[in-house]
Write a structure and sequence with these properties.
The structure holds two protein chains of two kinds.
Chain A lengths: L7 H10 L4 H19 L2 E4 L1 H17 L3 H4 L6 E5 L26 H8 L3 E6 L33 H8 L5 E6 L5 H6 L3 E4 L19 E6 L2 H11 L29 E5 L9 H16 L3 E5 L4 H19 L17 H14 L5 H24 L2 E5 L15 H5 L6 H6 L3 E9 L2 E8 L5 H15 L12
Parallel strand pairs in A: 2-3, 2-4, 7-8, 7-9
Antiparallel strand pairs in A: 1-3, 4-6, 5-6, 5-10, 9-11, 10-11
Helix pairs in contact in A: 2-3, 8-15, 10-11, 10-12
Chain B lengths: L4 E12 L40 H13 L3 E2 L2 E2 L2 E4 L9 E4 L6 E8 L2 E12 L3 E7 L2 E7 L6 E7 L6 H18 L11 E11 L33 E6 L2 H20 L7 E6 L4 E7 L9 E2 L6 E2 L2 H9 L5 H12 L3 H5 L5 H16 L4 H9 L12 H12 L6 H14 L1 H8 L4 H14 L5 H11 L1
Parallel strand pairs in B: 12-13
Antiparallel strand pairs in B: 1-10, 1-11, 2-6, 3-16, 4-5, 4-15, 6-7, 7-10, 8-9, 11-12, 13-14
Helix pairs in contact in B: 2-3, 7-9, 10-12, 10-13, 11-12, 12-13
Chain lengths: 476, 465
């Protein structure tokens, strides 16, 4: 069983055919993790007993119920869960030391849906504490490493999920994307990573970072796998008043349909100085593929892009400072001095920008900028169907390279955070490699256009097959 | 009347709504009847990581109904905000409340001293309850979250209340309106309705002396506008957590006296929060506020803004009972009721509807409604109000007021027996004790085992003795 090269699609077929059992599959995952994770640090908590028990249960179901794969579309699929997701009975730390022993009494809505669909949680994955970061280095535990180059970061904040899927520890990893946190690790780990439309996937039970930004996404090796998972996670949730009752498409149905006549916009503000030329070249190569597939490409403008970062770093810390108030050490968890440097930085920033006398000048002003950014995208989508841009201005950087310069670290999100301000969806797809490192490309769409993003990404993936290049990672 | 200081009071009253479920989760809203602490809780009202609030539609509708009943304007576009402060009974570190867009604003409540302007009516969530007690010999603080997340309405007035009596009247009136809408039990003892008064004394300049009929300085137009002649004092004392109308009145009275003494010394009372000690009859300092707390309000991103469109608004309006003032006006006109008496009979609009039917049947039966009300209040008619058919009450009433047919000489026979049996009462009567005649009336009726018209009997006793 070569988990490194397998996808959800392959594994589902093999489980159906009886090529291997759920138990064999989960045992293989756990053994890969045990051998490799000391080096990668993708996992914070393993769910070994729970996963094996579930595998037994499913193997019985497979034997006795021919229809089981229809009832449970993700039956037996091993999943890594970002530690911001509350999982009943499995320690949930948010990557922080404050709640290092927190054992939630309930499951996040998305976790409940995925479990109902048959996934098996193999463990909880590492992350920048509370989701604050772009590299994974802000974890209060050991930082996760990039499976393509162990001296480099895997991208964050969903660092563990990205690395875990990438090195074959599981087939899907959940993430949360507040400013970049699914798409960046997907880009750095050669994965497909979705930041869904705000309101498409329930946030209930996912520990809040910045509530009006948090988008509940996931990473997989392929577009098909990614679409398959969204079919389960998307949809209105009575426990989350910000979810929207818009029909959930059968995303996998449209994969393979042609994209002739598709209009692609290139935001000129995303192809500027500071963008690594190797990435620029990779994206331009990819654009040729789209042209070959029948798409047309034109340059467009998102004029307020320059202000996005500033607005983001006022609004997000404001919400962060509020959301972290509940960790007061009274009923559970440790005292507030256990917050890491980045969390403290954001609590202070946010408390300041919300203070009376400063609120109008900071929070309110930034909220107005947010509206302008949103309008930029709305105007762009009057002209084109999707936007394509690099995911990150740089290749995966060295561990430690930016830890002492928060501003440099923040700039890793410069092409990604505008979509969170606007609440629109973005999908990272592998664009190729430079210096042996993955290059990520993002496809951005208008609100609730996930189906279109998958359709566009799928044809490109079929043409290029970059996902097949897995890390040169030898077991042991 | 020569007054040097004018009392200025603004009130903030909290009322817990009696919706079935809590404000932002599905937990049962019944903190006062819970058998044990922390049984009506869930991740949302415990503020567990990842839990999200979803607003209770009923609570919003009831808040708007209260606003309408108070003559408020309604914000058709409203939202919830987060109010941040740390306290162990506040599990999220913030309270979900409303800051700059309350559901209702600009209303008024009439009192016998004049109208009181309602600044705003907003909806928020209640906190948990701290219990300080000894466990195994150790002093501990326990938290009960049964109350956490219970819908709480806050009604704020302008500083336009000018006496303790008016404050009490306002608070009682508000309770009556809330109970009439049947949206809260307003159980003051348990904290279902909590009173808070901001009290200060303003110095009356020599030229201000316009007085009303009762001799109070008329200040309503004097605090506002270009021609205002009274400045709001530069301090205020918050009298908090008052759980009875009587304590409110006494607490304010005490404060007026305390503040007057300080002002007389040429000092300014400290801006602070004070409580009322009912046993000692005094107020005491709880917390001094050097400066205004910064609650870092901002719109709660978990709760989408609320659009009260015309359709929803008219639905709320159509479900409201006849306005209390209209009801009394109609009853006075149609049934000649006495308002103060009738107010003692009922609380909710459903009870009012029931009484309305009773009164109309009484009129049809040509019975005096005011007398019926009197008998009901004094429990002379043994019955369960609001639960039985009105015709039964009418029958009971008739039985109660109907007298037995008796000839004068028959009555005189009974009087003789009663007089013989009660020589002391006769002596008392002759000595001029007025009560004695009532005693004899009772004695005759008991002797006769009959109902005799009171005045006729008194007359006959007087002539017999």
């Amino acid at each position: 069983m070569d988990l490194l090269g397998l996808t959800i699609k392959n594994v589902s077929e093999k489980l159906k055919d009886g090529a291997f059992s759920c138990k064999e599959l989960i045992k293989e995952c756990l053994s890969i993790i045990k051998i490799n994770d000391k080096k990668i640090n993708a996992f914070l908590t393993l769910n070994e007993d729970g996963a094996l028990k579930k595998a037994d249960e499913f193997d019985n179901l497979i034997k006795n119920d021919k229809e089981i794969f229809k009832k449970k579309p993700l039956l037996g699929i091993p999943m890594g869960v970002k530690d911001l997701y509350t999982t009943r009975g499995i320690i949930t730390t948010a990557g922080s030391k404050i709640i290092k022993d927190y054992n939630p009494p309930f499951n996040a809505t998305v976790i409940r849906r995925l479990i109902d669909a048959g996934v098996i949680i193999v463990g909880k994955t590492n992350e920048d504490a509370w989701g604050h970061g772009s590299s994974g280095e802000n974890t209060d535990y050991e930082p996760t490493k990039n499976p393509y180059d162990l001296s480099r970061v895997p991208g964050g904040s969903s660092s563990g999920s990205g690395a875990a899927v990438s090195y074959g520890a599981c087939l899907v990893g959940t993430g949360t994307d507040t400013g970049s946190s699914v798409r960046l690790p997907a880009g750095y780990c050669n994965l497909v990573g979705l930041k869904p439309t705000y309101g498409r996937v329930s946030r209930y039970g996912v520990i809040a970072m910045a509530s009006s930004f948090d988008s509940i996404g996931h990473m997989t090796k392929t577009v098909y796998d990614n679409a398959k998972v969204l079919e389960v996670t998307a949809g209105v949730d009575p426990y989350d008043g910000t979810t929207v009752p818009i029909r959930v498409d059968k995303y996998t149905k449209v994969l393979g349909q042609n994209i002739k006549g598709l209009k692609i916009g290139l935001p000129k503000e995303y192809f500027v100085e500071g963008l690594d030329n190797k990435i620029n070249i990779s994206i331009r190569e990819s654009l040729k593929v789209f042209e070959k597939l029948g798409a047309t490409i034109e340059e467009i403008t998102l004029p307020h892009t320059d202000f996005a970062m500033a607005a983001y770093y006022i609004l997000v810390p404001s919400e962060v400072s509020s959301n972290l108030s509940r960790y007061d050490g009274v009923r559970y968890g440790g005292p507030r001095e256990l917050f890491g440097a980045e969390a403290k930085r954001r609590i202070m920033l946010g408390s300041y920008t919300l203070s009376s006398g400063y609120y109008d000048a900071y929070y309110l002003k930034a909220a107005k900028v947010r509206t302008l950014i949103k309008q930029d995208f709305e105007n762009a989508f009057k002209k084109v169907d999707v936007l394509i841009a690099p995911t990150s201005p740089t290749l995966p950087f060295k561990i430690g390279e930016k830890v002492n310069n928060p501003l440099q670290m923040y700039l890793s999100d410069i092409f990604l955070c505008p979509t969170n301000l606007a609440g629109i969806p973005g999908l990272n797809v592998p664009s190729g490699f430079a210096d042996g490192l993955p290059v990520g490309m993002q496809i951005i769409g208008s609100q609730f256009s996930e189906e279109l993003l998958y359709k566009v990404a799928y044809l490109f993936e079929q043409e290029t097959q970059h996902y097949k290049i897995r890390p040169q990672f030898k077991n042991g | 009347m020569d007054k040097k200081y004018q009392t200025i009071i603004g009130m903030e009253i909290h009322v817990e709504l009696k919706t079935n479920s809590k404000m932002f989760c599905g937990c049962k809203n019944d903190p006062f009847h819970a058998e044990k602490p922390n049984i009506y809780t869930c991740p949302v009202c415990l503020g567990l990581p990842g839990a999200l609030p979803v607003a209770n539609k009923k609570a919003i509708e009831w808040t708007i109904a209260l606003g309408i009943a108070l003559g408020c304007k309604i914000n058709k576009f409203s939202k919830f905000d987060r109010k941040h402060y740390f306290y162990p009974d506040l599990p999220k570190g913030y309270q979900i409340s409303q800051y700059d867009m309350p559901f209702c604003f600009d209303g008024k409540v009439e009192t016998s001293f004049g109208p009181i302007k309602i600044t705003r009516v907003h909806l928020e969530e209640d906190t948990g309850k701290l219990i300080h007690q000894k466990v195994n010999g150790r002093n501990v603080s326990l938290i009960d979250f049964n109350r956490s997340g219970v819908p709480l309405v806050e009604i704020v007035t302008e500083p336009e209340i000018y006496s303790s009596v008016q404050a009490k009247e306002y608070a009682k009136k508000l309770r009556q309106i809330v109970r009439y809408l049947d949206i809260s039990d307003c159980d003051m003892e348990k904290g279902g309705m909590r009173l808070e008064a901001n009290i200060s004394l303003a110095v009356i300049p020599a030229k201000a002396g316009i007085q009303d009929k009762k001799g109070n300085n008329r200040l309503d137009p004097l605090l506002r506008g270009d021609d205002k002649i009274l400045e709001l004092p530069n301090y205020k004392v918050e009298l908090k957590n008052i759980n009875s109308f009587r304590f409110l009145e006494r607490g304010i009275e005490y404060e007026i006296e305390r503040q007057r003494e300080i002002l007389e010394k040429g000092e300014t009372p400290i801006q602070e929060t004070r409580g009322f000690n009912a046993e000692k009859g005094i107020t005491y300092s709880q917390r001094t506020k050097e400066e205004a707390a910064d609650y870092r309000y901002f719109p709660d991103p978990d709760l989408p803004p609320i659009n009260i469109n015309d359709k929803w608004f008219s639905e709320i309006e159509s479900q409201m009972p006849e306005a209390l003032e209209d009801l009394f006006a109609r009853w006075i006109k149609e049934y000649k009721i006495n308002r103060e008496m009738t107010e003692l009979l009922f609380e909710t609009s459903n009870q009012a509807k029931w009484l309305d039917k009773l009164f109309s049947e009484a009129v049809k039966a040509k019975l005096p409604v005011d007398k019926l009300i009197n008998l009901l209040i004094h429990k002379k008619i043994k019955t369960e109000l609001f639960e039985i058919d009105q015709s039964q009450i009418i029958a009971e009433y008739k039985k109660e007021v109907t007298v037995d047919e008796l000839a004068d000489d028959e009555i005189v026979n009974y009087i003789k027996k009663a007089v013989t049996a009660n020589p002391q009462a006769v002596a008392d009567y002759k000595a001029g004790k007025g009560n004695a005649i009532n005693f004899l009336v009772g004695a005759v009726m008991r002797e006769a085992k009959k109902k005799i018209e009171f005045n006729r009997l008194v007359k006959l006793i007087k002539s017999s003795v």
